[in-house]
Design goal:
Family (chain B): Belongs to the TRM112 family.
Number of strands of chain B: 6
Organism (chain B): Piliocolobus tephrosceles
Low-confidence stretches of chain A: 14-31, 153-221, 497-506
InterPro entries (chain B): Trm112, Trm112-like
Helix content of chain A: 40-55%
Mean pLDDT of chain A: 76
Largest sheet of chain B: 4 strands, antiparallel
Protein name (chain B): Multifunctional methyltransferase subunit TRM112-like protein
Number of strands of chain A: 15
Largest sheet of chain A: 8 strands, mixed
Strand content of chain B: 15-25%
Distance between the termini of chain A: 61 Å
Shape of chain B: globular
Structural class of chain A: alpha/beta
Oligomer: heterodimer
Radius of gyration of chain A: 26 Å
GO molecular function (chain B): protein heterodimerization activity
Structural class of chain B: alpha+beta
Chain lengths: 506, 132
């Protein structure tokens, strides 16, 4: 998070600089730059629009409008808080809105509609959003610089005859620069490599100096921007396709701005979102989705961090709560909790040693990441990893405040058949360890039929208060929010005539 | 694995009563079996978490690591920074890296490898493979 703080300071410095220049250039403009209000749009996981709106209200103080197009929210902020927008934890991608048409009348014939789009490009108020985009790009450059340095580092490692693995990993676009950091820092443990690393660090500084020289050269020369247009169209009554709209709109934008069109290596990404009669034109502020933060070691079913944040927000953690994820997998949910809710204690558990390994590695890489940024010698996070079996948890009865977990759907992990045994056993064990009355559980699953059946047998201990329908990897899944009833846990052997748990009839 | 986590763990064997607290046995063969990691001191958290943990268990366990806490505390002690600091040190900063947890009743032991507790019975492990 610290680079965002540094970026904020940079941003404020930039803002002041722009203030001075704008006052000199346009004296007729009475409103100063710092009061410039912009509308920002954000894509959020479907179903969590309300939680995202709550987060925006809490962190930025602005109210949100949730659009008819599912999965997007819009809010108005002043340009100064642009850096804080990047700190939002429940959004995937951000864009600045150029113009919004609530009820756009599409003509009937395709050619006329496309001509309208071409004319539209010239009529839109581009200046303010482009200013915002420029400010945004200035502190994104810092992140891009680090990526380039890491790539240089990997090349030098190859030259030294080191592992080729690092280069292969670098090629994969999924891994952010942080992945490489953690991998390099694992090397620190080995004393033999420490010497080589010290020479590499020297090269690192040298290459970063080269970078700063290059970038300053770039800024002095006027650059032709490269752009591309992405169109998302949803609705039945349109006579055109998104490709045609993007093509014609892009052509008009190119004529208007004289930018170069480049599909892969672009600076500006113009978004054209069409949903029935609602048309929104925007400029993207994020290149890669923000949802893959924190995690460096992925598993087969790693949950998006934005979804994990949404789920944690639903259970409303109070300070000093004990939060347990008994089927954590790669630990996405506890790690998100440990970074955002630092005044709670998180325990992550799984029955698979590979998963626990990945979770422990993710925690370790998160620690090293914060170590580099904040320069503190080995600080801990309020999170622990254990390998256990959820059907028989080694926890005291009534000791846990909140349980948040992603149940195996039965598609990629486990099987639907096993779920019929697993879900009731899970719910029973979770009801044992949760504190009666105040305990909560937030459970994500796609196998809703099995879960509903399992829950119906547990009505005396769990009460369902909310269901949120979400889209996880194309599957329609539900997040169930349950509250533990005041009834204390009774061991099954003491209960008479319990249905469904007996394997045989007596 | 921290002492805070240890405070919540108990033996989950079917008929084992009194399997709490689990005894900690450190691995003497490894070089670094206990690590002390710094952590932000959150006063409110320590105050509130004290009501959730079993204090006697914490007192005895801390003694094993050479930390002497007060035998019992009153609400006055909750305001004392020094006392809260010592609790914070015991709960959060001590990390058991190599060792094992042993149930005092049934004497089953679970290893702690590289800071992670492995609380799995071996026979259940085999059961999962046969099921597939």
């Amino acid at each position: 998070m610290c680079d965002i703080e540094e970026a904020t300071n940079q941003l404020l410095a930039v803002n002041l600089h722009e203030n001075q220049s704008s006052v000199q250039v346009t004296e007729s403009d009475l409103r100063s730059e710092s009061e410039l209000l912009v509308t920002i749009g954000a894509t959020v996981p479907t179903g969590f629009e309300q939680t995202a709106a709550d987060e925006v209200r809490e962190k930025l103080g602005s109210s949100c409008k949730i659009s008819r197009d599912r999965g997007k929210i819009y809010f108005v902020i002043s340009v100064e808080s642009l850096a804080q927008v990047h700190c939002l934890r429940s959004v995937d991608n951000l864009f600045v809105v150029v113009q919004e048409f609530q009820d756009y009348q599409f003509k009937q014939i395709k050619e006329e509609v496309l001509k309208d789009f071409e004319d539209l490009a010239g009529k839109l108020p581009w200046s303010n959003p482009l200013k915002v985009w420029k400010i945004n790009a200035s502190f994104k450059k810092k992140k891009a610089k680090r990526k380039k340095i890491n790539q240089n580092l990997s090349k030098e490692k190859i030259n030294n005859g080191q592992e080729v693995k690092i280069n292969q990993r670098n090629v994969k676009k999924e891994f952010t620069s942080h992945a490489l950091d953690s991998h390099i820092l694992d090397y620190y443990e080995n004393p033999a490599i420490k010497e080589e690393v010290s020479t590499l660090v020297g090269d690192d500084l040298a290459s970063s100096k080269d970078e700063t020289d290059e970038s300053s050269k770039e800024e002095t020369e006027p650059q032709v921007l490269k752009f591309r247009v992405t169109c998302n169209r949803a609705g039945e009554k349109h006579c055109f396709t998104s490709n045609e709209a993007a093509r014609d709109f892009g052509g008009a934008v190119q004529d208007y701005f004289k930018w170069k069109a480049d599909m892969t290596n672009f600076d500006v990404e113009v978004l054209l979102n069409i949903h029935d009669n609602e048309v929104i034109v925007g400029i993207a502020l994020t290149e890669e989705s923000l949802h893959r933060r924190n995690i460096t070691h992925f598993g087969p079913t790693t949950l998006r961090s934005t979804l994990a944040y949404g789920m944690l927000r639903l259970c409303d953690p109070l300070p000093y709560d004990i939060i347990v994820d008994p089927m954590c997998g790669t630990g996405a949910i506890p790690i998100e909790g440990a970074t955002e809710w630092t005044d709670c204690f998180h325990i992550a558990g799984d029955n698979n040693p590979l998963a626990v390994n990945r979770a422990a590695n993710n925690i370790a890489s998160l620690l090293t990441k914060s170590q580099i940024k904040e320069g503190k010698p080995s600080w801990g996070l309020p999170i622990d990893a254990v390998q256990w079996d959820i059907c028989n948890l080694p926890l005291r009865t009534g000791s846990v405040d909140i349980i948040v977990t992603d149940l195996p759907f039965g598609k990629r992990m486990g099987s639907k058949k096993r779920n019929w045994n697993l879900y009731p056993a899970c719910l029973r064990e979770m009801s044992r360890v949760c504190i009666p009355t105040t305990g909560r559980a937030v459970l994500l699953t796609q196998d809703t039929k099995c879960f509903a059946k399992a829950l119906s047998g547990m009505r005396h201990v769990w009460r369902k208060v909310d269901t949120v329908w979400v889209n996880v990897g194309g599957l329609r899944a539900a997040v169930y929010v349950l509250i533990r009833t005041p009834q204390a846990f009774v061991h099954p052997s003491e209960q008479d005539g319990e249905k469904g748990t007996l394997w045989y009839k007596e | 694995m921290r002492l805070l986590t240890h405070n919540f763990l108990k033996c989950n064997e079917e008929n084992c009563t009194g399997g709490y607290p689990l005894q900690i046995k450190l691995d003497d063969t490894s070089s670094e079996n206990v690590k002390i990691l710094e952590q932000d001191f959150n006063k409110e958290f320590v105050k509130n978490v004290l009501s959730k943990v079993d204090y006697d268990v914490l007192y005895n366990t801390a003694k094993q690591f050479g930390i002497s806490l007060l035998f019992s505390y009153t609400s006055q002690h909750l305001e004392d920074e020094g006392f809260l600091n010592s609790i914070h040190h015991a709960l959060f900063k001590i990390h058991i890296m190599e060792g094992s947890l042993i149930c005092p009743q049934c004497h089953v032991s679970f290893p702690i490898k590289d800071g992670t507790l492995i609380y799995i019975y071996i026979y259940i492990y085999i059961y999962i493979y046969i099921y597939f």
